[in-house]
């Protein structure tokens, strides 16, 4: 299993395009692999014969470095290939600790204890079930509550009367202390109830954790726990940009408000280049090109395809690229370079009716713009005015409040004066010391 992205730790074999005995040449696609962000084609780099497929299609959570197939040189007998006894991934921290995972779907292996949570242990005790009798379907051999409930339902098991003198095997018994007559129980003493069996007819569904959602959880947790956040919000008058868009539509140019937002942000990054930066181990790094990421919701999770050099693209070009990248993102067909990197991200929830929100920065980027819905309010002269609220989330190590405010002012000016966005020369904003 190759590492097809910097954050990938495991993958899923989606489909094999070759079968055992097929001759392959350099550039031939062997299989599709679901990484933490997209489906990527894995091709071969040599002339060979596919001798053995060790990991079938739809195999999930295959560790990086695990053996998934065997190739032999052309002319060799591929049927007589020797399969290595150890096809697992190289040693990890778990192996260093002399622990061992169970392959999902197996249980009852001598010398290996199934991993389970307290709710599962409680169910096993209530129904007097041996854990070896339950097939574990969770990742890395975890025994899930649903596994036990399925067994209970299939065998129509009934709760065993609780013996209060005995504790579950996993919980060592504790000595009973009889309070003296003078002792008083505090009013706040917790009341511990015995475990209750599941209510008949109440069920749930375990949702498989995809590689993408696992990576999203890891990176966003990293973002919220390691970045010193600050926020700034500004309202933009949308009247001129909406009229500008209508005029373009009359001329046969179909663009969305979001395309205008991407262009306005990209030009603002040119005007305030200090915001076009990322955080690295050695400190802030200014990036030479303005590459704007646009958040796209897919069935597997959120992904951010990149509009390369967005400041120098026309609004129509931004529109066509955004539509094409978003379509392939929803199909899981983005290539790694199309969603890895970028200098700035835009997350727009306006189409869902959200008026204002804050977004989470995607490291190592230093800022993200949260865009709300356009709405009509009464202006200062008591006339209707269409405004849009945007909030900038900033990594204070790179973009402080003053710098972020200057960027937001430049963004607002671009939105309120759309001709700024199509000017040939964009002047950088001078930052006063």
Overview in brief:
The protein has helices at residues 93-96, 118-126, 145-155, 211-226, 239-250, 257-271, 315-330, 401-416, and strands spanning 10-16, 23-24, 29-34, 39-43, 48-53, 59-63, 69-72, 115-116, 142-143, 229-237, 277-280, 283-286, 292-294, 296-298, 301-303, 306-307, 344-348, 367-371, 375-378, 384-395. The chain is an alpha+beta fold. The chain starts with 9 loop residues before the first strand and ends in a 17-residue tail after the last helix.
The number of distinct helices, counting runs of at least 4 residues, comes to: 8
Structural class: alpha+beta
Rg calc: 29 Å
Strand % is 15-25%
For the sheet with most strands, the description reads:
7 strands, mixed
Overall helicity: 10-25%
Which residue ranges are poorly predicted, with pLDDT under 50 across at least 5 consecutive positions?
92-113, 164-190, 424-433
Taking the alpha carbons of the first and last residues, their distance comes to: 52 Å
Please provide the ordered H/E string of secondary-structure elements: EEEEEEEHEHEHHEHHEEEEEEHEEEEH
How many strand segments?
20
Mean pLDDT: 80
Shape: globular
Keywords:
8 helices, 433 residues, alpha+beta
């Amino acid at each position: 299993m190759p590492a097809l992205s910097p954050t990938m730790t495991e993958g899923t074999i989606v489909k094999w395009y070759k079968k055992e005995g097929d001759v392959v040449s350099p550039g031939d696609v062997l299989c599709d692999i679901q990484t933490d962000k997209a489906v990527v084609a894995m091709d071969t780099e040599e002339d060979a014969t596919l001798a053995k497929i060790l990991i079938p299609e739809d195999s999930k959570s295959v560790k990086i470095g695990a053996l998934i197939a065997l190739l032999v040189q052309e002319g060799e007998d591929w049927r007589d290939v020797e399969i290595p006894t150890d096809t697992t991934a190289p040693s990890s921290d778990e192996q260093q600790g002399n622990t061992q995972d169970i392959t999902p779907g197996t249980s009852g292996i001598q010398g290996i204890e199934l991993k389970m949570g307290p709710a599962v242990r409680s169910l096993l005790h209530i129904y007097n079930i041996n854990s070896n009798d339950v097939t574990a379907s969770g990742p890395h051999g975890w025994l899930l509550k649903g596994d036990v409930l399925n067994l209970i339902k299939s065998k129509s098991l009934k709760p065993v009367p609780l013996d209060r003198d005995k504790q579950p095997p996993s919980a060592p018994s504790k000595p009973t202390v009889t309070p003296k007559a003078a002792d008083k129980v505090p009013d706040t003493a917790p009341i511990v109830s015995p475990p209750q069996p599941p209510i008949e007819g109440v069920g749930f569904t375990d949702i498989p954790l995809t590689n993408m959602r696992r990576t999203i959880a890891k990176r966003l947790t990293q973002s919220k726990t390691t970045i010193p956040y600050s926020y700034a919000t500004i309202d933009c008058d949308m009247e001129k940009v909406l009229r500008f868009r209508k005029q373009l539509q009359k001329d046969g140019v179909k663009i969305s408000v979001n395309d205008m937002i991407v262009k306005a942000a990209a030009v603002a990054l040119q005007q305030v280049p200090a915001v076009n930066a990322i955080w690295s181990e050695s400190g802030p790094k200014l990036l030479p090109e303005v590459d704007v990421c646009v958040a796209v919701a897919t069935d597997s999770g959120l992904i951010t395809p990149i509009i390369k050099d967005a400041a120098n693209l026309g609004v129509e070009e931004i529109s066509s690229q955004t539509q094409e990248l978003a379509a392939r993102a929803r199909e899981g067909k983005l290539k790694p370079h199309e969603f890895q990197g970028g200098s700035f991200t835009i997350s727009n929830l306006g189409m869902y009716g959200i008026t204002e929100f804050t977004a989470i920065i995607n490291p190592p980027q230093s800022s993200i713009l949260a865009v709300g819905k356009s709405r009509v309010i009464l202006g200062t002269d008591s006339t209707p005015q269409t405004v849009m609220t945007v909030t900038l989330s900033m990594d204070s190590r790179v973009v402080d409040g003053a710098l972020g405010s200057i960027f937001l002012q430049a963004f607002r000016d671009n939105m309120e004066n759309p001709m700024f966005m199509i000017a040939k020369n964009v002047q950088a904003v001078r930052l006063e010391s």
